[in-house]
Design goal:
5-stranded parallel beta sheet; 5 strands; globular; single chain; 7 helices
């Protein structure tokens, strides 16, 4: 489902930015699509280094930077596609991150952003494990995501919250 969601083939001859390159698997696919330009950020130098190594092995290139999505180091309207898979919900201010994506996205561009849905099977399973079965029935779903999913502070959003965040798109 990531390939379908990402639509890597759409990057051909486009200016593409990936927010949160991680270990570079998706970034390598963007590079293979033949973009006009490819850029990527991650908070960690380790992720940037690993992604660079993967690209070098394939003879591909990207402008990779260690940066924060809440303060993207790019000009306004510099990208045709901005892609981020499982990243923005880890930022302290996801709304600010979304506005930064909008700022760097060209008019008519495409933002493909995956965020955690608050009321989901994952949320229910986590609440059952860390709330109900642990005797903490009063544990709120937002606390479950923040404490027990991936990294401290992870957030999940309702459909309305997501629509509100992306209302300017």
């Amino acid at each position: 489902y990531i390939r379908k969601f990402a639509g890597f083939q759409d990057g051909h001859n486009k200016d593409v930015l990936e927010v949160g390159v991680g270990m570079g698997a998706d970034h390598l696919e963007w590079a293979k699509s033949g973009p006009k330009s490819l850029s990527g950020i991650d908070l960690t130098e380790r992720a940037i280094s690993i992604t660079n190594e993967r690209l070098e092995i394939e003879g591909l290139h990207s402008d990779l930077r260690s940066a924060d999505v809440e303060q993207l180091p790019y000009i306004n309207e510099g990208f045709d596609i901005v892609y981020s898979w499982r990243v923005l919900h880890h930022t302290p201010d996801t709304r600010k991150a979304v506005l930064e994506v909008l700022r760097v996205l060209r008019s008519g561009g495409i933002a493909r952003i995956m965020l955690y849905q608050k009321y989901s099977l994952v949320g229910l399973m986590l609440w059952l494990r860390y709330g109900l079965l642990s005797g903490r029935i009063g544990l709120r779903l937002s606390q479950v995501y923040s404490r027990y999913l991936e990294s401290p502070g992870t957030q999940a959003f309702t459909t309305k919250e997501i629509r509100d965040m992306f209302s300017q798109f």
